[in-house]
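This entry is retained here.
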Amino acid sequence: MSPTSPDGHARRAGQVRVAVDTGGTFTDVAVRRPDGSVEVWKVSSSPQAPDDAVVRGVKEALERAGADFGSVERFVHGTTVATNTLLTRTGARVGLVTTAGFADMLHIGHQSRPALYDLSVRRAAPLVPHELTWEVTERLAADGAVLVAPAEAELDRLAERIRAAAPQVVVVSLLNAYVDPAHEQRVVEHLRRAGAAPSVLAATAVTPEMREYERTSTAVVSGYVQPAIADYLERLETRLAERAMPARVWVMQSNGGLLGAGSAREHSVRTVLSGLVGGVVGAARWASQLGLPRVVSFDIGGTSTDIALIRDGVPGEMTSGELEGYPLRMPAVDVHTIGAGGGSIAWRDAGGSLRVGPQSAGARPGPVCYGRGGEQITVTDAHALLGRLGSSLLGGRLALDLDAARERLAAFAGELGLDEEEAAAGVLRVITATMARGVRKVSIERGIDPRDCVLMAFGGAGPLHATDLIRELGMKGAVVPPHPGIASAVGMLDAPVRHDFAAAASATSAAELDTVARTLEELTADAIRFLEQRERVDPALVTVDRLVDARYLGQSYALTVPWQADFAALRKAFDNAHLERYGFDDPDAVLEIVAVRASAVVEAPGAGDVPATVAEGAPPEPVDIRSVLFGAQRHACPVYRRDDLPAGVELAGPLVLEQLDSTVVVAPGQVCHHDTVGFLHIHEERP
């Protein structure tokens, strides 16, 4: 394969790009033809064997695009395997080796509590039980000085004890190893030679950063999901190879970039947000193309809503976070997920009040109106019974059983003491309030007023809720991309290859910056070498962003800012970032650098291409007139095919726009229009 192509092979005429996003309800496929047009397709997910839906969906999408597996030049995949493995607690049997005296690290955690005043809340149980935790006599000082080195005889005995316990994966995380990983590496190599476990990994190989608890937790999560990810990707690669697909499999990772399937097997923790970030990557690119400075990415699927803030075409990032109560220390797109989706179940709490979610009907049985055995009213049922959805979805492939939904709604409304329409409308009001809180979380808590933002609404249900959200929050308007229900897959088509590297560093003055600069140079060289040797890309195509983590001396948290060799300029950049994030800065405090980062990126060829142009024309004729409830009043609402709406024609609500992968609702008092590149803009009517 040619190393000059970011995908590991030369491009040939007639080849297509494929992206697949696996969700809880549907598996979405996007195929881009050589002329730039995109074919989209949806199939039902197969949670027990996700690769079944992937292969089936890709086969059907390629047939619709007039292509075959042999013509695929780029294959990108967003997978929920790692996330679901963690959520369902079905991961590997993991053991932990740590410094003597620190065996209870994962059980003690830190002083943060999930809910400060809720005495019933408990932290998630550690993924490593006490009986699979072993100590080794060794010690490094905080500056990396060796106090006690591990002894070979003790390591021999340790290997025997581990073999007897038969863990699938062993994580070695030793105190202060982020300063010098030599002890960790020595223990790992010894255990591997002794055959102590099928897989042995060092915590510093996963995240070489300070904070022992977070570093250990991240490495343990990586080990916990590793076998599931490795098995899944191996099955998928084998099945695609059997169909003569020449392209490598690229996996979307949590930082918004791609890594090869081989790298994903080794660095499995990097895929835990794989299924969430594809749409954010696409939304950021679209926001940049449309010149929108402040955008809230709003992706609603069957089980959840994923929300992210995008500023000047760049999504927010974080270097540490938490998933299901387990700290994760790694670069990731800053996505806030709430349990609110099309399948969210409506229920009555002990006080008799209407609640919605976070429980979901999922793919099976799904909403009542799907006719698959669902018995509980969901958000999708409410939309259908209020007239926002028609009698079928997916271009007629999924017929809706409105009678069954209406019968179940009548019983549920009776439990609430409401009539049917009040109950259905109440479901939407409750879920709107939940989603609005999520938007405030990523905007107001980041120092941004949502009234200055545009909502980028996508996912199968995003355009159904956009009209309510922009009115609830007073936002500037909403934008719906051309293929909203497949937006995550479309967004991944042009995702860059990216790997992030980090190292400990320390400086509090200009005199110490030379040491930081040398560490950054070494990290940059490591990043380029990794992409060239492991991902087989041309090093000339690699760009490296160099960053530092800094804080005011004495703080327990840090902010990441671009590296600058001038200490005064670096200080000013940090002060400005701190002011924006926290509302104040401290010019008198000492600035401390605690870590350095190198983010190596290879952009996909043609990633800046603009979507196909939408022609101008006359206003379309509605294909149907449907009774739709808005507020307390029903309206005779025209229904249009979105594909029939030309550019520049403004339509006044109320109206419904239908397409294969989603439905757009425009409320009374709002207007919408297509721009010339296919994006639908919705805003309040101007007086």
